[in-house]
Amino acid sequence: MFKKRLLLAPVFLCVLNTAQAGRPIETDDASAAEFRTCQLDFWTETAKQTRQDNFNGGCNFSGSGEFSLSLGEVHGNQEDQSLRALGYKHIFQNFSDTVPGFGLAASKEWGQLKASNESSQETLFTAISTVPLLGENLLLHVNLGYLQYSDQALQDDGVFKAAALDYSFTERIGFSVETYSGVEDSLSWRLGARYTVIPDFLQIDASYGSDYGTFEESRAFTIGLGITPSF
User: Fold this and answer.
1) Which residues pair with 189 in a beta bridge?
2) CB–CB of 116/82 below 8 Å?
3) C-alpha pair distances (Å), 89 with each of 4, 11, 77, 93, 150
4) What's the pLDDT tens digit per position in 79-98?
5) How many CA within 13 A on the CB side of residue 126?
6) CA angle at residue 33 from 28 to 66, to 5 degrees?
């Protein structure tokens, strides 16, 4: 069952976890884009048997909520596939230097193998918390949610959990370390770094880690950029 699900959704977190804390952190944070601002992330993930090109766009139209759209194309892993996802995150309390923040997020992803037209779906509901440890220079993000997966052969559900430490070394340079897991997955981990080229507008980032807990088979590297235009 695991191999079947791995084929149809090899890196679901990279697309499904929309409205996230900004690449390369997969773990969501308790913040949304500024009102009338979008967060546009483009990145490529390269693993041993696959390459995935991704786009995630989240925009704040209401002031406290963020709608998001994610697109992904997976090449390799026996068959190429496309991934699409929609999401919404609502922030009930923004975090600050001394006050934790929390919110809720929901997202749905659709995956389809291009050659066979086999499809899969994943639905995720997540409670999100961000806790300042050293002001906003060191943040702890914690996610706990419900994840459901289905395709033509099976349906499965379980608890989704994720945690990340996000450290701002300077105003422009930041680092992260995180772990997460979904339905029947072993714990995954990822190390990330980011550099702000133009404050409040352009960021480049990279990450390295292992999905599904098997480093030799699933280690992956990402590189990407984020743009935050206003409207």
Assistant:
1) 179, 210
2) no
3) 30, 21, 31, 12, 23
4) 789 999 999 999 999 999 99
5) 38
6) 70
